[in-house]
Amino acid sequence: MARKVGFYLLILTLVSLGTLGTVSADAKFKVMVNNSSVNYGVQIVSGQTMVPLKAFESFNNTSIQWEARTKQVTIVRGSMKIKLTVGSRTAWKNSESVQLDVPARMLDGRVTVPLRFIAEALGARVTVDATMNTVWVQERANAKLVQNYYSNDLAVSRIAALQFPVDEREPSRLTGDNEALSMSYYFPEGRSDGYFIIYGHFVSYYEIKDNIRTVVWEADLDLSKEADKKDFTAIFGHPIVKEYGKAPVLAPSYAYYYTSVWGSQIICGIVNVDGTTKVSGKSLNWENNKPFIVAIPGETKL
After folding, report:
1. Beta strands 182-188 and 166-167: pairing type?
2. What digits encode the pLDDT tens for the residues 159-211?
3. How far is CA 12 from the centre of its chain?
4. For the chain, which terminal residue's Cβ has fewer other Cβ atoms within 10 angstroms, N or C?
5. Record's superkingdom (predicted)?
6. What are the structural domains, with CATH classification, of the chain?
């Protein structure tokens, strides 16, 4: 019920702002683009959220051009080209013309653009979190990464999964170990749609959904003790002190990759839920420019 009330209040706020014309929205709700706050130039114009053009500079493989003479903006990401002109309601997505409710406009010397139109044209996800009074914009993986992710080559698929954009809407409640000298990655055997990563005593679980990776579970490990249960602790070798979020369903076995922070050593193999491990590969002189995710003999994609 509280979530519904919050949602209706947010919608009422947006509608009210729209009826008043151009009103600064900074004090009413937040706009987050790729986990970074847009802390200036956010406005509601006729019910539409407007943000500075620079808010989209964090998108990967995206170029933004501004032509001062014609007051035209061109945004290119992959095969998508967006064009809009300050003061004009007609915008272009490749060869398709689109009529905007509110045109791009100038505000204090900055170009501001319709948030939802640009975000969705770039393939991003737009969500409203009523409980936090926040609009979240999260870019998705580009076409090349998505193609690699769906590859039947598990190594290629897992490398792509590690490169997907990260949704950080759920803030971490734990603290990682900045002095850890190694990291370990655990993928369910035969899969690449989720993985654990251990950095010192800190462990996180990521899920791949909607071409975005999201942290859904985190935990602190007690490195001074040995694991004594056939659960996550057996895989990691140490018991859990505290955890946050929803723990994933445990797979029967995991492909693991251990690498030093400096990238000079890699060990990979299969670990079972009882903690037994089979090492399938080891290198003490791993080259930094080579991916540490490699094929594990006998493992096939499910």
Report:
1. unpaired
2. 999 999 999 876 566 555 555 568 899 999 999 999 999 988 899 999 999 99
3. 29
4. N
5. Bacteria
6. 2-138 (3.30.457.10), 143-283 (no CATH)
Cβ atoms of 3 and 131 within 8 Å: the answer is yes
**DSSP run (H or E) holding 280:** strand 277-283
pLDDT at 140 over 60: yes
Q: Are 291 and 274 in contact (CB under 8 A)?
A: no
Residue 218 CA neighbour count, 13 Å, CB half:
15
Tokens of 192: 């690449």
With 0-12 / 13-18 / 19 or more C-beta atoms within 10 angstroms meaning exposed / middle / buried, residue 244 is middle
CA dist 50 and 42 (Å) reads 6
CA distances in angstroms from 111 to 7, 97, 292, listed in the order given: 29, 20, 42
Q: What is the DSSP letter of 89?
A: S
Between CA 257 and CA 289 the distance in angstroms is 16
Residue 81: pLDDT above 60?
A: yes
Q: Give the Å distances, CA to CA, from 299 to 187, 248, 258.
A: 12, 21, 17
Q: What is the mean pLDDT of residues 7-28?
A: 43
Under DSSP, the state recorded for 54 is G
